[in-house]
Amino acid sequence: MDYDVKDLKLANQGKLRSEWAGQEMPVLAEISARFKKEKPLKGLTIAACLHVTTETGNLMVTLKEGGANVFLCASNPLSTQDDVAAHLVKNHKISVFAIKGENNKTYYKHINSVLDAKPNITMDDGADLVSTLHKSKVKLIDNLIGGTEETTTGVIRLKSMAKDGVLKYPIIAVNDADTKHFFDNRYGTGQSTLDGIIRATNRLVSGTTFVVVGYGWCGKGLAMRARGLGAEVVVTEVEPLAALEASMDGFRVMPMAQAAPIGDFFCTVTGNIHVIRKEHFQKMKNGAIVANSGHFNVELDLEGLDKITKSKREIREYVEEHTLKNGRKVNVLGGGRLINLAAAEGHPSSVMDMSFANQALCAEYVAKNHDKLDNDVHDVPTQIDKSVSKIKLKALGVKIDTLTAEQKKYLSSWEFGT
Ligand code: ADE
């Protein structure tokens, strides 16, 4: 069995932490128990490129219970939990290729290692696996019946591949399930990003000005939680509707040029490139703290920052202090990589439970329905999304009402009015 992890001796710690996470993943546990009996993925090879965390570990075990041969690499060089990687190899005989802090060359070597398994299904987070496959391993495409994509950035990339006619097999956009982005992107990113910023800096958020760059689902969660910690929250946006929403949610909305001199914390969650640039860093207050929680490390223009930097040093783990030529200091967290996974542990298990339940059920859906899917990016079937919310509610012990016959009739009629 082939693998590349930091240290197999970490396996026991990974096992215990995965068990702890599993206690908050009842939906995945229910699916896992069914998969164990039904083996819907029997004989299929799955190549997964995901953040290697306790929650991902539990998903990989579920896929294996379902009968799949599972290969896993990291979807970000900094997000791997080395103990989980060791646990999957040692205790579950799953081939993992991931080491926290790996350089770009090793990152792509690991992606190629999981592709060498000749997968039938890909499970991606950010679309690096799918794009590597399409760029340099086209011969493998014949083996593929479908794939899934976890995140907004990946879905956008894949949709542009489909638009250009280069996507060669169907992908299900797990990110777009309501039971994924309503919870994972909003509450998961909200909490884990602040967790990462706080673990990296140990600074008080209360009484500060916290600039949230981008007001998509992740930005909404982050703004809500930063306000909850007592910050005055400023939102910057380019979309008029999102800016209006932020404004009516009670946040100050302004361009980055105006926010730069007043922020104490800045965090980007846009999915776009260079949303904080040289001219913004130049105006920041002494001691400003800048982080990114978007998928790729492109949101901060760090090359631009280097051009106006006189000297820099790692003042504490995950904090690079830049002394600018203007004399002020600007602190960049986690090298601009997604701070919730670099300095903390990513989204809490309770939300990943729903995201990964969607992943497992979509893998099953691909296994059963790939003949009917064309080479495009597809929505998660509504029945999967609904079943995830129903099982989660049951697990949380929350009961809801059901429509009466009269209400059902009323909703399907058009005759009744004033
Ligand atoms: N993305 C964000 N948080 C995550 C987690 N805990 N596990 C896997 N992927 C994630």
Description of the molecule:
This protein has 418 residues and is an alpha/beta fold. It contains 17 helices and 15 strands. The protein is globular and about 65 Å long. Helix 2 runs parallel beside helix 15. The termini are far apart. Strands 9-8-7-10-11-14-13-12 form an eight-stranded mixed sheet. It has a seven-stranded parallel sheet with strand order 3-2-1-4-5-6-15, with helices on both faces. The chain binds adenine (ADE).
Strand content: 15-25%
Q: Any idea what the shape is?
A: globular
The set of bound ligands, ions and cofactors reads: adenine
How many structurally independent domains? Answer: 2
The first-level CATH class of the largest domain is given as Alpha Beta
In CATH, the architecture of the largest domain is 3-Layer(aba) Sandwich
Which strand order does the major sheet show?
9-8-7-10-11-14-13-12
CATH superfamily of the largest domain: Adenosylhomocysteinase-like
Question: Can you tell me the residue ranges where pLDDT is under 50 for at least 5 consecutive residues?
Answer: none
Oligomer: single chain
The chain-level structural class is alpha/beta
Count of β-strands: 15
Query: What would the average pLDDT be, to the nearest integer?
Result: 97
User: Largest sheet, if any?
Assistant: 8 strands, mixed
Measured as a percent range, the helix fraction is 40-55%
Rg over CA atoms, rounded to whole Å, is 22 Å
From the 3D structure, determine the CATH topology of the largest domain: Rossmann fold
Q: What is the CA–CA distance across the termini?
A: 70 Å
Count of individual helical segments = 17
